[in-house]
Structures are given as C-alpha cells and as structure tokens.
Amino acid sequence: xNQRLKQLPNILLNxxxxxxxxxxxxxxKRRKELVELFRTHxxxxxxxxxxxxxxxxxxxxxxMMDGLAVRKKIEIQYEGPGxxxxxxxxxxxxxxxxxxxxxxxxxxxxxTAVADPDRKQLSGFWxxxxxxxxxxxxxxxxxxxxDPDVHDEFRNGVHGLFDPPLDKRPGDAWGTIxxxxxxxxxxxxxxxxxxxxxxxxxxxxxHSRGGKTALWAGAEDERFAMVVSNNSGCTxxxxxxxxxxxxxxxxxxxxxxxxxxxxxQYNDREDELPVDQHMLLGLIAPRLLxxxxxxxxxxxxxxxxxxxLIAVQPIYKLHGYDGIGAxxxxxxxxxxxxxxxxxxxxxxxxxxxEYDWRCFIDFADANxx
Length: 369
Ligand code: GCU
Hints:
Layout: H1 3-6, H2 23-43, E1 55-64, E2 69-80, E3 83-94, E4 101-108, H3 128-133, E5 137-142, H4 143-146, H5 157-162, H6 176-192, E6 197-207, H7 209-220, E7 226-230, H8 248-254, H9 277-282, E8 288-294, H10 302-318, E9 336-337, E10 341-346, H11 354-367
Parallel strand pairs: 4-5, 4-6, 6-7, 7-8, 8-10
Antiparallel strand pairs: 1-2, 2-3, 3-5, 9-10
Helix pairs in contact: 6-7
The structure holds alpha-D-glucopyranuronic acid (GCU).
C-alpha cells in the first residue's frame, strides 16, 4: 500500500467513533457529516438552492451542424435581496433522437472561444460535434456568468445577490467555486424541464478550476449521475496531504475568493484538515466518477489525483461495486475503469482535449445506462 494512503483521515470512521459498515449508514450518517465538514472548512455554505423567483426562458431554437443538432439558447433568470441575475447557457440536442438522450454539461472556465455557440471556432475543449455524433446532448455555461473569477470581496455575481455585507460574512460563507457549482445545479434544473433530455443520465464535467467545481457540485447535488474531473488538482481530485505542485497555501494566496475563509487556516497545515479530497470523491459515490490527469501537469499532480481514486474505493465497495482495478497509475493513453470508476492519464499539458472527451464518452457509453 502506498504510504500516503496511510496518512489519510479514515473515510469510514464516524465522527462519534465506529466504522461505517453498510451503505445505509454511509448515506444517513457519514456522508452527511462529510458534506458538513467540506462546507465548514473548504468550499463554504451555499445560502440558497433554486430561488423561488427563478425562471427559465428559451431565447432561441434552431438547427445547427448540418441539421444534426437542435441548438437552444436558454436563459436562467433569478433574483435575490441584492438584485437580479441571469445565467445563459447553450444546449445542443441530437436532432434525430427518437427517445430522451443523456447529456454532458461542461462548466467552462476558458471563455466562449473554446465553446463557440455558433460553431465557427472549433476546439477540443468542448467538442460538441463529437458529443452529438455519439448521441449525447451537449450543454455549456460560462463560469463568469454565475460569478466573475476575480476577488472583489464578494460584491459581483451571485454573491452580490444573496450574501450578507462583508463585515457580516461568516468564515464558512461560500466562495466562488461553490457559486459556480450552484450555477451547474441551476442548469440541471433547466435540463430537467427539457423533454428531449434524460435527466437521470446527466454527466457534469469540468477542467481544472472547473473540475474542482464539478466535484463540489456533484457532492452537493445528487441529481448528477456522473461527474468528470479533468486535471482538477489542488482542492479538486488531488489528495492534499503530501501533494506536490500546488498546495493549499498557494491556492489561497492566488485565489482568495475560491473557498471559504476558514480554509485559509489550513495553509501549510494540511494534516490538520478534518478531510482530504478522497472524501470529496466519496460524496459522488455510488454514482459514476471519472478522473483524468495529464503527464506534464505537475502543478495539479497526477499521482495525487490517482491516489485519491484509490482511497475512495472502500465507499464504492460498500455499495457493492468494484474498485478501479489497479493499484498503481496506468501508463499514459491507457484508460482504466470499472462499472462506476474511471481514470486515464494523457500525455501532455494541463488542458482538456478531444482525447479526454473520447475517454469520458467511452466510459459513459459503457456505464451511464
Ligand atoms: C491555476 C490554479 C489551479 C487551477 C488552474 C486552472 O493554475 O493554481 O488550482 O486548477 O489555475 O483552473 O487552470
């Protein structure tokens, strides 16, 4: 057994003592404790779910991709004590499907250039044509439409709508990653109302900061049947204890708005955190979970991403599913999977590419059924 796995807090040990021995105890007790720990110490507490005022407006609908896909431009509108907000997103649906289709939702942190709704600019970051060809709907939203990725002391975006004034902001108030995760759940709300989509088969995917977001969204919102974390690194899939590359102190210094204020207590004190990131992966269980890494992505630390998946296996086993089927990292371009867990390492840099998507889709074809 890898030494680092021995240093981790025990995912199965209840707060009051005693080891979780079955899936009901996990769901009713330990899972709830862990969600609370992540809210309190890491991502913060989301103050609102679906706002009562929320409305979903279809702004445009047309045929694209030589008639192969219906494009819908949808706008989610909401209001809070601080004013009104809107989250637009684009949805492509296979035009010829004769029954509701599964969907991939991408949390896009790289702007519309990599997710062009008009498909004039194509990118492997969001290969919507490939998803349509493989009979998946493809949805994408821009993180900045939920909450701009700058530290402005929580005035803009959804924080400005729902948060108390800064001097009344508790240490466990939600950060920007939790705000983006909230946006993903609102897109899920809208997809649930789309007759052409099978809402019980929606995969949420994100790269890097978007991957951290996908994991937290999947933890908080169990409607997502599958979660994909690509190169999510620090405070994403990667274990924090013993991590190489980016550490908690780095991420809190560069991105002071991403997490709860309480998380800053753990700068250079990873060992004092009551959780580690395998527990975040555990909150996705027993749903489908896919983690991917890239060989050159030392800042995210592929080994820490892989080990986290090893450390979550007991939770899948508790539910009667196999582990990932390997104890050491597979070679590059050699995806491994079981019926609920998938992993691959891609040669190259920190990025989301068409190769990665083909692996996610292959895994979904086999298991998102
Ligand atoms: C920075 C940050 C990472 C993050 C990445 C990204 O490198 O330190 O934590 O994952 O940006 O979002 O691309």
